[in-house]
Write a structure and sequence with these properties.
Mean pLDDT of chain A: 84
CATH architecture of chain B: 2-Layer Sandwich
Largest sheet of chain A: none
Radius of gyration of chain B: 17 Å
CATH topology of chain B: Alpha-Beta Plaits
Strand content of chain A: under 5%
Shape of chain B: globular
Radius of gyration of chain A: 34 Å
Helix content of chain B: 25-40%
Order of helices and strands of chain A: HHH
CATH class of chain B: Alpha Beta
Largest interface: A-B, 33 and 41 residues
Strand order of the largest sheet of chain B: 1-8
Number of helices of chain B: 7
Number of strands of chain A: 0
Low-confidence stretches of chain A: none
Number of domains of chain B: 1
Low-confidence stretches of chain B: none
Distance between the termini of chain A: 108 Å
Number of helices of chain A: 3
Distance between the termini of chain B: 26 Å
Number of strands of chain B: 10
Oligomer: heterodimer
Helix content of chain A: 25-40%
Shape of chain A: rod-shaped
Order of helices and strands of chain B: EHEEHEEHEEHHEHEHE
Chain lengths: ~80, ~210
């Protein structure tokens, strides 16, 4: 049986490697999509900056906190304090 | 559920710009971008009036309608926010907005227009509440801290009211009834529609 010459084998390997270089990675960018935003009453961030005594995730307490804080803009209430 | 709104009482605004300063400082807004500004009507004429103007977070926001990449969204509290990762800075929103709220930072030697920036009602953006990423892109998220917008809370004469629409309307109505004048609210009709019979504002209280 006649063996293939080394030169032919090497040439075939080089060919395979050259074709491998032609492969291309997918370049499709991810489509920008809207993300769901966390609700304000869920809180978050540094606890040192939290105002009032409401707890993160307590929606009704958050609403009460904002209503109470809103009254600080009402001078008719502030002058009575 | 609270529906967040702004009211500026033109009878009280003394054009001190503390709202502008509070906003700039709270959110570290860059040079050239003013999320809030004070506008004087009939400047120099006796009877001039000043009002503080920013995004009013309209009920039927025209910026949302014209955005070609649909980057705007509205929170449960009625605050109109946008995603800067989607915004392409085209500027359509600035043409559509009746209040001139959308701002565009200019960057680099050629004055390239960046992504749109506007008042967030101190509610941040789609990043995680209170995160560094949210602060860098949108500023502080005061609502998630149980606070109200810095501009309204810092207003020295309490001309600028911000918070639950029913509460601020009640505060304003009490004032108007007490002083017996100055019921006009500039921009209220444009932003939130004409007042209906239970809107909380006095009769003829809008000035679009």
């Amino acid at each position: 049986m006649k063996h293939a010459p080394w030169g032919t084998v090497i040439a075939m390997l080089c060919g395979v490697l050259a074709f491998a270089g032609c492969t291309e990675k997918p370049q499709e960018g991810a489509k920008a999509a809207k993300r769901a935003d966390a609700q304000a009453w869920q809180g978050g961030g540094d606890p040192a900056f939290m105002a009032g005594d409401w707890r993160s995730g307590d929606r009704s307490a958050w609403e009460r906190q904002l209503k109470a804080r809103n009254q600080t803009q009402n001078e008719y209430v502030r002058t009575q304090q | 559920m609270a529906r967040m709104k702004f009211i500026c009482d033109a009878e009280r605004c003394i054009e001190c710009n503390s709202c502008v300063t509070a906003c700039k400082a709270e959110h570290e807004v860059p040079w050239g971008v003013n999320r809030r500004r004070v506008v004087t009507l009939n400047d120099g004429v006796p009877g001039e009036r000043s009002i503080s103007v920013a995004c009013m977070h309209c009920s039927d926001a025209p910026c949302m309608a014209v955005c070609p990449v649909d980057c705007f969204y509205r929170t449960e509290e009625g605050v109109v926010l946008h995603d800067k990762d989607i915004c392409i800075g085209c500027g359509y929103c600035s043409y559509a907005c009746p209040f001139g709220a959308p701002q565009f930072p200019t960057n680099g030697s050629f004055g390239l227009r960046g992504k749109m920036d506007k008042c967030t009602f101190c509610a941040g953006g789609p990043e995680a509440n209170g995160s560094e990423a949210e602060f860098e892109k949108y500023g502080r998220n005061r609502l998630a801290e149980g606070k109200l917008p810095a501009c309204a809370e810092m207003c020295s004469t309490k001309a600028l009211l911000g918070g639950d629409g029913d509460v601020v309307a009640d505060i304003f109505r009490t004032r108007v009834l007490t002083r017996g004048k100055g019921s006009e609210v500039w921009g209220w009709g444009t932003a939130y529609g004409k007042p209906s019979s239970g809107s909380g504002l006095p009769k003829e209280a809008t000035k679009s």
